[in-house]
Specification:
Elements: E1 8-14, H1 18-29, E2 34-38, H2 47-51, H3 53-64, H4 69-92, E3 97-108, E4 111-116, E5 122-132, E6 136-138, E7 152-153, H5 155-159, E8 167-171, H6 175-187, E9 190-194, H7 206-218, E10 221-224, E11 228-234, E12 240-245, E13 251-256, E14 258-261, E15 265-267, E16 300-302, H8 313-328, E17 343-345, E18 351-355, H9 358-363, E19 368-374, H10 379-384, E20 390-396, E21 402-408, H11 412-424, H12 429-434, H13 445-451
Parallel strand pairs: 1-2, 1-5, 2-3, 5-16, 7-14, 8-9, 8-14, 9-10
Antiparallel strand pairs: 3-4, 4-5, 6-15, 11-12, 12-13, 17-18, 18-21, 19-20, 20-21
């Protein structure tokens, strides 16, 4: 039975992302009335479930298992549909929670106008507290022809294509671009990556970046550095033609059946009318918040990508924890209390990192000890038949604390969590070195890696 939309709620959450939906459930279970507004019934659960983390990882996994693209596409859709329904029901079944499918726009700091999807009915809703959790979306740079060329996709729209592009050009050599490059190459596509940086993965240490480059190019992914795209258009056959300047300043033209633009993200504030609430934003359009995730308007918070912080689902979840503790008298109430956070890029093998890289540590004045281990020396990697990669760690010579770790190997996305705990608990590297791990496992590589310090 559909719930009645009320004119007033204790709490109003705009956006069904990780932080927002978790907050909605927590508030409702406490007995506080909460409305959760989501613009589309195809986005219940947020971007991660529907158009980002989950569908891409599903496709990546199936590509690794040599499942044909058409079948992998169907499996991806089944998974996201299941999770979307599950997330909707988790909120809607709570007596104090109401999911409203429609577009929200501010009228004042305490009131929004909601236009329902489908019938376009409008409701004015007031709330004591408002939480913005609308997330981010792909950014399209001002390249000539980008807005009128067919078969140009973002990471979201490309995931909706049921047919595999036989030749894919990707603008952008960042993490999203590389994940798609690796995935499509595994499905059998010819892939060209156009990266405007002079060096590949410029934030990584040279040895790590070189190892990733070697592995990706061995899969016949053509990575072109210092490529500045000038113009995009269609051929008579409706292929995409990309014209770019190479590092020599020469104009080069390349054609493909599809083009992926992976050039960053921008905030999802379209139609939100945040000006009516007096909410401040930064130069990039993200909502400005203080250390408590509060906007300049006292009753309004911003959660997840929209507040301009690290754009990870688990950061949105941690934003929820900070707000929960503010509302319940807990101690963890500020982003300043947040410790080191790991990240992973889901190429094959995965690339994971936490803390300082060697170059960064030296630049900050640390005296460091560095250890490196080839993934091929790890027994588990040989059992699994994936011996590509490199494990690297940086330790403070004076204190024996782990400053950072980069893992490019099978299971890196799981292994990095062990190092995250060690760093955040202030453990000496010897603790990680001398811990008893299961055998044969990837994690026991830490016995060998930290023995090299």
């Amino acid at each position: 039975m559909e719930k009645t939309i009320e004119p007033y709620y204790d709490n109003l959450i705009i956006g069904f992302g990780k932080g927002g939906k978790t907050l909605a459930a927590w508030l409702a279970k406490k007995g506080e009335q909460v409305a959760l507004i989501e613009i589309s019934d195809k986005m219940y659960g947020g971007s991660c479930i529907n158009v980002a983390c989950i569908p891409t990882k599903s496709l990546i996994k199936n590509a690794e298992e040599k499942i044909p693209y058409k079948e992998a596409f169907s499996l991806k859709n089944e998974l996201t549909s299941f999770l979307r329904t599950l997330n909707f029901e988790k909120i809607e079944k709570l007596p104090a929670a109401t999911v409203i499918t429609g577009e929200a726009s501010f009228i004042s700091p305490n009131e929004v106008l909601v236009k329902l999807s489908g019938n376009k009915k409008e409701y004015r809703i007031k709330a004591n507290r408002i939480f913005i959790n609308t997330g981010s979306q792909p950014f399209l740079p001002p390249i000539e022809g980008i807005d009128r060329t067919k078969n140009v996709f973002t990471s979201i729209s490309l995931l909706g294509q049921s047919a595999l592009s036989q030749k894919l050009v990707i603008i952008g050599g960042g993490f999203i671009g590389l994940e798609f490059a690796d995935m499509y190459a595994k499905f059998g596509s010819e892939v060209i990556v156009l990266d405007d940086n002079e060096t590949f993965l410029p934030k990584e240490d040279e040895d790590v970046a070189g190892e990733v480059y070697k592995v990706l190019t061995a899969k016949r992914i053509n990575i072109v550095m210092a490529a500045t795209v000038q113009k995009i258009g269609n051929t008579e056959e409706n292929n995409v033609e990309v014209q770019y300047k190479n590092k020599m300043g020469e104009m080069v033209s390349v054609q493909a059946s599809a083009l992926l633009v992976a050039t960053g993200r921008k905030p999802m504030t379209d139609g939100l009318n945040i000006e009516a609430a007096g909410i401040s934003t930064n130069k990039k359009g993200y909502i400005e918040v203080d250390e408590f995730l509060k906007t300049n308007v006292p009753n309004i918070w911003a959660i997840g990508d929209i507040n301009g912080g690290l754009q990870f689902t688990y950061i949105s979840l941690d934003d929820f924890r900070i707000i929960r503790n503010q509302l319940s008298g807990g101690k963890y109430i500020s982003v300043k209390q947040r410790k080191q956070v790991a990240s992973s890029v889901f190429i094959t093998p995965p690339l994971a990192h936490i803390g300082l890289r060697e170059r960064e540590a030296v630049e900050k004045g640390y005296e460091v000890k560095v250890a490196k281990l080839r993934a091929a020396s790890v027994v588990r990697a040989r059992i699994e038949g994936d011996t590509n990669g490199l494990l690297k760690t940086v330790v403070d010579r004076k204190t024996n604390k782990i400053l950072g770790c980069t893992l490019f190997c099978l299971g890196a996305h799981e292994m990095i969590n062990t190092i995250q705990v060690a760093i955040n608990c202030g453990l000496d590297y010897q603790v990680v070195r001398d811990t008893i791990y299961t055998h044969p496992s990837m994690t026991e590589a830490f016995n060998d890696l930290y023995s090299l310090i």
